[in-house]
């Protein structure tokens, strides 16, 4: 029995696809002894031709144009005026406005949308104490996504990640890796999943406390948090909101931000939904998911907002309750019909649960509302490719090209679709463009790996061998390339080299069934039945529906029975 052909299927790369209010003018008192600005002068005393704009208005203009560094510099100059001028500007409440504007500018420089930022570190995965049930029912857990296939392609056609989820068509934080089953796998994750996943999300996914201050202010932090009187600021709602976002995003001091939010919501007599959402965000970042759930639910009762629904769904997904998150999204769609973010959230959950057909339907609903949604187009194209419809997938990827997406992943996928759609004239030119646009070695390795599959398809095994070798030159942890090189070595009769390559592939990617199955076939051929049976069991565990593995195990059991 010969081992399978190039065991790992071709893998298309994932196509990555208000301001502060100015104070009202007051009549000048005689004590200030300043002249009113003449027709050629600005308020600061400089000629209007030199300054151009009043400083605070200039800072506000910079902020509106997203030139946050220039905005912060102008505000710093306003705040560093001599004492006499400070008193004058204080009378016009410009000091307060400049402080507020600089706080917001510094926040925007490091702002990250909390809805999409959902990075789970190794510590959160391994030391997770929030599990509701260790053995979840089929179709109710993201930790066991293979329990609900939903009519999607099998792992023999569509490759899966370490956690058993299918390769998606769009890069998201939740698709960058998977939940490892052992600590050894978890530690190896940054190398095998091609991500720099941090040990904990709090230390790697967000800017560490103090780091952002030194980056944006070489002289030191703009606000000394240890000397703030939070009670005083909590009684000024406009200043308090800007200060909270500065502490939460810029300083990353979650506990201080939580204290400020608690005092502010108490001052508002627990009637301000915005502060409840911020308290929920703090609890979520601190890992107190049940407390965060209570705050988000309370905020939804006061004010129905799409963002609050998305935050609450994040809590349920972290608690591994995808069915509850789906119900929440569907209830939100009843109140916000056609909301793209809710439809996209439902599609993502179905995709992570391996219910590919339902995910495709919701992605199509997304495109009905927003026909330029890159994620929906890429995921539908990927689904058609793995459903043996490369011509239709080609149309979706060409649509992305027309929209202005121009990167290595897209041309890589175009090359694969052209090859399987038998449009050979465009295949090599697409791969050449993908190699030209590759930004790192991992992307280059993906292109060479797929070129190796093209070479196998046209029967040029020497070219395929060179392509898989180039894949390993660019990425030494590419398990699929090791597996396919082993198959080519086996065809040449090099048994020991094939066995070594297959062992490397199985150790790098234990979630793949192809290396285990090929080891079983190879061991059975040379008469090592015990090793063959062990490898066949691992293959069956990785892909329970693989018919060839089941037949091999049946034959080995008959051999053992005869002994």
From TrEMBL:
- Show the InterPro entries listed in the entry: BBS8, TPR-like_helical_dom_sf, TPR_rpt
PROSITE patterns attached to this UniProt entry: TPR (PS50005)
Q: Give the Low complexity compositional bias ranges.
A: 20-30
Compositionally biased tracts (Pro residues): 1-12
Question: Keywords, A to Z?
Answer: TPR repeat
Q: TPR repeats at which positions? A: 479-512
Q: Where is the composition biased (Polar residues)?
A: 173-184
Identify this protein by name: TTC8 protein
Q: Which GO terms describe its biological process?
A: non-motile cilium assembly
Q: Which GO terms describe its cellular component?
A: BBSome; ciliary basal body; non-motile cilium
Region span, Disordered: 1-48, 144-185
> Pfam families in the record, alphabetically?
TPR_8
């Amino acid at each position: 029995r010969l081992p399978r052909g190039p065991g790992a299927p071709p893998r298309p790369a994932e196509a990555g696809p208000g301001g502060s209010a100015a104070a009202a003018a007051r009549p000048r008192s005689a004590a200030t002894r300043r002249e009113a600005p003449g027709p050629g002068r600005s308020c600061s005393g400089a000629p209007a031709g030199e300054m151009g704009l009043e400083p605070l208005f200039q800072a506000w203009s910079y902020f509106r144009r997203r030139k946050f560094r220039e905005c912060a510099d102008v505000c710093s100059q306003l705040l560093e005026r001599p004492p006499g001028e400070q008193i004058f500007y204080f009378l016009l409440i410009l000091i307060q406005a400049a402080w507020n504007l600089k706080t917001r500018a510094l926040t925007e420089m490091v702002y990250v949308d909390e809805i999409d930022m959902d990075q789970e570190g190794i510590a959160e995965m391994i030391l997770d104490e929030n599990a509701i049930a260790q053995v979840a029912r089929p179709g109710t857990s993201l930790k066991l996504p293979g329990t609900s296939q939903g009519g999607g392609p099998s792992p023999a056609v569509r490759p899966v990640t370490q956690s058993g989820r299918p390769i998606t068509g769009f890069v998201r934080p939740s698709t960058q890796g998977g939940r490892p089953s052992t600590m050894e796998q978890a530690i190896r994750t940054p190398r095998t999943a091609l991500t720099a996943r941090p040990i904990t999300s709090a230390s790697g996914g967000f800017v560490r406390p103090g780091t952002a201050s030194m980056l944006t202010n070489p002289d030191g932090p703009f606000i000394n948090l240890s000397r703030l009187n939070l009670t005083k600021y909590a009684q000024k709602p406009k200043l308090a909101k800007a200060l909270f976002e500065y502490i939460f995003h810029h300083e990353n001091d979650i506990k201080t931000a939580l204290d400020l939010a608690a005092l502010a919501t108490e001052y508002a007599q627990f009637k301000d939904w915005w502060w409840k959402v911020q308290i929920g965000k703090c609890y979520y970042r601190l890992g107190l998911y049940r407390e965060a759930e209570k705050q988000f639910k309370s905020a939804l009762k006061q004010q129905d907002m799409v963002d609050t629904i998305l935050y609450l769904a994040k809590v349920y997904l972290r608690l591994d309750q995808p069915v509850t998150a789906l119900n929440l999204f569907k209830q939100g769609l009843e109140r916000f019909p056609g909301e793209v973010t809710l439809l996209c959230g439902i599609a993502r959950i179905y995709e992570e649960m391996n219910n590919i057909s339902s995910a495709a339907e919701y992605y199509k609903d997304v495109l009905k509302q927003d026909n330029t949604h890159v994620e929906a187009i890429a995921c539908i194209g990927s689904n058609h490719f793995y459903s043996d419809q490369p011509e239709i997938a080609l149309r979706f990827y060409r649509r992305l090209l027309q929209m202005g997406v121009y990167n290595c992943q897209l041309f890589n996928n175009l090359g694969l679709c052209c090859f399987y759609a038998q449009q050979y004239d465009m295949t090599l030119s697409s791969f050449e463009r993908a190699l030209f646009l590759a930004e790192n070695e991992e992307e280059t390795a993906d292109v060479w790996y797929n070129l190796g599959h093209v070479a196998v398809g046209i029967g040029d095994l020497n070219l395929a061998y060179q392509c898989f070798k180039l894949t390993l030159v660019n990425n030494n942890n590419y398990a699929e390339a090791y597996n396919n090189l082993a198959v080519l070595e086996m065809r040449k009769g090099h048994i020991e080299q094939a066995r070594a390559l297959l062992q490397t592939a199985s150790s790098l990617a234990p979630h793949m069934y192809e290396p285990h199955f090929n080891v079983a076939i190879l061991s059975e051929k040379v008469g090592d039945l015990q090793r063959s049976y062990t490898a066949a069991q691992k293959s069956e565990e990785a892909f329970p529906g693989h018919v060839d593995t089941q037949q091999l195990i049946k034959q080995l059991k008959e051999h053992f029975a005869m002994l």
